[in-house]
Structure formats: structure tokens, C-alpha cells
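Supplementary Note 3. Input sequence used for the single-chain structure prediction.
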Amino acid sequence: MRRQQASVLGFFFISLLLLAAYYFLQSPYFGVSQVTVTGISLIKEEEIVRLSGIQPGENILRLDQNRICEQLRFHPQVEDVTIQREFPSTVQIQIQERKPVAVIGQAGVFVLLDRQGILLRKLDSLYGIPLPVITGVQAPLNVGPGQVVSADGLAAGLKLCQEMPPTLLARVGEIHVINSSRLVLYTTDSIEVRFGPPDEIAAKSQALLDILDQWMKNGSTPKLNYIDISSAKSPVVKPKEETKISTNAVHPAVAHPTTRTAGKTGAAGNGH
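The predicted structure, written as C-alpha cells, is reproduced below.
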């Protein structure tokens, strides 16, 4: 008798749970009415919402969060995604964007790359793009958005973009890759900087900042032939029509150039 009563009670509770589950899964109270997107600065919110596939009124309990995350990761500028449900009817999508660090050429146009060398998108122009242009390398034609660009010497240029202090990188218009162990920079003031291999980046960067700041203290930027910081411990400054001198004797009385073009690409007119 007790066994029969237990069976009846068990059936009753299971039925109750099934009815409750059916109610929650079908109730319009849990229909999605709002999708919010955070963490974006480069991607449009409506683009993320569209790619998520979340439909207005779709039951929030039935959302396949793994599927939504996978769909969004197909976007070339999305590095990671987190989905949160805020009951009863709001879905929050948190995006971690791939941040562009440099520009390179591809068959006559320019493209943005992130720190891993992933091609993010093509650019109509360099105007307003405050990033250095890496020259001496090209993105292959068969590489599209979301794919990794493989080119000899590119990793050296990207390493420099990642490790150089932002205050100094903002003054670099072009990074020319001669080979993976020989880089030449051009500042936004058209100063050639012989960087050498992409090592001791912190020390070389500080040496370069010290040299540039030393000239600017006098209210002028020198007409330099080049700055050589391939050895961080013994940097060399070569003014135009002057003999090679050390940074301890930088000539103070050279006129400031009136333009801000950079290097061989003229890329520093792009918003530095």
C-alpha cells in the first residue's frame, strides 16, 4: 500500500515539474525583450545582435549560449564572448574585441592587423588611423578577414607594436622591415630611426624618447639624418650635414620641420 502511495506521489510531482517546465518554456513572460552589448568600440552593436541570432520574444531559458558564442566568434574582430541572462527578459553580450595594432599593405590597399597578425578589415584610407604602417611586408591576396597573415619579418614589426610604450608608438608613422633582425622606424616628424633587431625594446624605446625629448626641450625638432638605437647602451644621433655625435652632445639649434609626414609611405598624415 505504501509503495503504491509513493508511486502516486512520485507521478504527481513529476507531472507537476513537467507542467512547470512547460509553463516557463512557453510563457511570454520569459520572452527576450532586450539584448545589450558591452565591450565594443570598433564593431556596431546592431551587427553583434544580428550575428547572435537572438530573436525578439524568444524564450530566454531556451537560448543555446554555446551556439551564440560560436557564431559571434566567427566575426574577425571578436576575440572572445560571454553571454549572461538577466531574468526575466534581458540578454547581455560581453565582447572582447581584437584591437588593431598596425597597418600593412595588401595588393594596393591597406588592412588592419591585431597583435596576433590576424587581418581585421580593409581600409578605404589611412586618414584618422593612429597606427604605424608596417612596410617591407605584404599580406597575401588569399588572406581574408579573420585569417592570420604570414609574412617574413611581420612578427618582428608586430612585436615592436606590442612592446613599445604607447606614448612613443604614437610618434611612429612607419616601421620598415628590412628583415626579421633589422627594423627602421620613421617618426611622424620624418626622422629615420635605425632600431636594429626587435630586442631590448624597453631600453631602446627609452633611449629614443630621451633623444627626442632632448631636442624638443629647445623648442625645435632637429633636421636629423638618422638616430641609431640598434645598441641601447650607445645610441648615436647623426644630424644632416654633420658628423656623427653621441646623445650627450645633441646640437640644440636646428629648425623644427613644418610638416608631419612620416617615412617612405607618408603614413603619418593619418592621424598621429
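Confidence is low (pLDDT under 50) at residues 242-246, 248-262, 266-272. Residues 2-26 form the longest helix (25 residues).
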